[in-house]
Amino acid sequence: MTTFNPIPELLEKYAREVVDASVEIHLALGPGLLESVYEVAMGVELVERSIPFERQLRLPVTYKSHSITAGLRLDIWIDRALIIELKAVDHLEDIHTAQLLTYLKLTGNRLGLLINFNTPRIRRGIKRLVL
After folding, report:
1. CA–CA separation, 25 vs 115, rounded Å?
2. What are phi and psi of 32, to 5 degrees?
3. Mean of all residue pLDDT scores within the chain
4. Average pLDDT over residues 56-78
5. Going by CATH, does the domain composed of 16-130 fall within 3.40.50?
6. CA-CA distances (angstroms) from residue 66 to 27, 70, 72, 109?
7. Model confidence over 14-29: pLDDT tens digits?
């Protein structure tokens, strides 16, 4: 029987705040903008909510003891524990989920949010992934 450790309460709080911020951003800006606009807006929301984060952080990949600079970048990394991957696409594809899962594995993080702002209702564009 496999047992899973719960996500720490602080990370759950951050995840709730990000969802709330996504709703606020979507209500103000709506769908149809570039991903980069939503990313900057999310940064504004996180600062206002006093949530520690980094944007566009380069993610190193190691293969057989070689560092590969493949251009992987985390959109938003909250407290080095919660990964936020933002999209502005017609609909989320399996490759978007795979991308976030890869980021979680490479960082050793367990919780990530995939958020697509190009939806009529933002809550339908949010996907939570837990390892």
Report:
1. 12
2. 100, 0
3. 94
4. 87
5. no
6. 45, 12, 15, 22
7. 999 999 999 999 999 9
